[in-house]
């Protein structure tokens, strides 16, 4: 099946972001994409100072638009970090997934908050305004089961391993790595998660805006279970297409059967919630 990653240029005007995102979703569908993913924080600038201002409840304006365009195009639509979600007085970094009938299939709240300090380069603390999610998020398609993470979640190998144990063959990470962590770790982490679990990994970023307060690395990427980069964007707004070949995935698992060779008598990773 064909996967499309929409590397969107994000502005400060929510309505413009929504309109352009939906237009690119329609374009991707017209080119045969059956699963389409938007980047993290596609409808607002990225930054703790923006989260409260742009926050919505779910369902709300942004998720309603995503539901409508998913149904119109009859696709599976991963809504990036569609919105800072407001619920019960708390804010969450939340990704929604809609099916071909427009129904909400999954809602992933970012589990690991981006609190980092690289001296002289970048300091960021999502926990100043956001609360963490506490659950794994998977959804079924006629093609395969898909596991979801958001950006910083990709650094935690245990999360991806759980998804692999639960039968996911594609992991999708809407993300917005920056100009420090992006060139160092963006592709490396994707390749690591793909090889560790013999799955396809797709990470979709906003396009780079050098004038933004937080500059995203871009380079939306798809990696196959062999660890090969099979599709990759540059920094500009674009749509990345690739065909997910589940026969190739099965062949790789047969050739190097690590999933059946794990020493569960010695070690293990388990899902607690």
Automatic annotation (TrEMBL):
PROSITE patterns registered for this protein in UniProt: CN_HYDROLASE
GO molecular function, one term: omega-amidase activity
InterPro entries: C-N_Hydrolase, C-N_Hydrolase_sf, Nit1/2_C-N_Hydrolase
Classification via Pfam families: CN_hydrolase (PF00795)
Annotated Gene Ontology cellular component terms: mitochondrion
Reactions the enzyme catalyzes: 2-oxosuccinamate + H2O = oxaloacetate + NH4(+); 2-oxoglutaramate + H2O = 2-oxoglutarate + NH4(+)
Enzyme Commission (EC) number: 3.5.1.3
Domain CN hydrolase: from-to ranges: 1-246
Enzyme class: hydrolase
Keywords: Hydrolase
GO biological process terms on file: asparagine metabolic process; glutamine metabolic process; oxaloacetate metabolic process
Family the entry assigns: Belongs to the carbon-nitrogen hydrolase superfamily. NIT1/NIT2 family.
Protein name: omega-amidase
Organism: Zosterops hypoxanthus
């Amino acid at each position: 099946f064909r996967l499309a990653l929409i590397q969107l240029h994000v502005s400060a005007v929510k309505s413009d972001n929504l309109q352009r995102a939906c237009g690119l979703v329609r374009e991707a569908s017209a080119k045969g994409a059956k699963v389409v993913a938007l980047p993290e924080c596609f409808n607002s600038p990225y930054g703790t100072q923006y989260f409260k201002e742009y926050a919505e409840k779910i369902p709300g304006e942004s998720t309603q638009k995503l539901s409508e365009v998913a149904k119109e195009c009859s696709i599976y639509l991963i809504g990036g970090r569609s919105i800072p979600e407001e619920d019960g007085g708390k804010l969450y970094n939340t990704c929604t997934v809609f099916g071909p009938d427009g129904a909400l299939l999954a809602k992933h709240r970012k589990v690991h908050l981006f609190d980092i300090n690289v001296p002289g380069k970048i300091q960021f603390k999502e926990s100043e305004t956001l609360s963490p999610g506490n659950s794994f998020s998977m959804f079924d398609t006629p093609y395969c089961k898909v596991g979801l993470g958001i950006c910083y979640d990709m650094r935690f190998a245990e999360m991806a391993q759980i998804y692999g144990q639960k039968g996911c063959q594609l992991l999708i990470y809407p993300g917005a790595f920056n100009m420090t962590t992006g060139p160092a770790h963006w592709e490396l982490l994707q390749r690591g998660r793909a090889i560790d679990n013999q799955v396809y990994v797709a990470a979709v970023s906003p396009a780079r805006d050098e004038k933004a307060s937080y500059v995203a690395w871009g380079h939306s990427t798809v990696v196959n279970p062999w660890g090969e980069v099979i599709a990759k964007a540059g920094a500009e707004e674009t749509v990345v297409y690739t065909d997910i070949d589940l026969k190739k995935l099965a062949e790789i698992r047969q050739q190097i059967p690590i999933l059946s060779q794990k020493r569960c008598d010695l070690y293990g990773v388990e899902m607690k919630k």
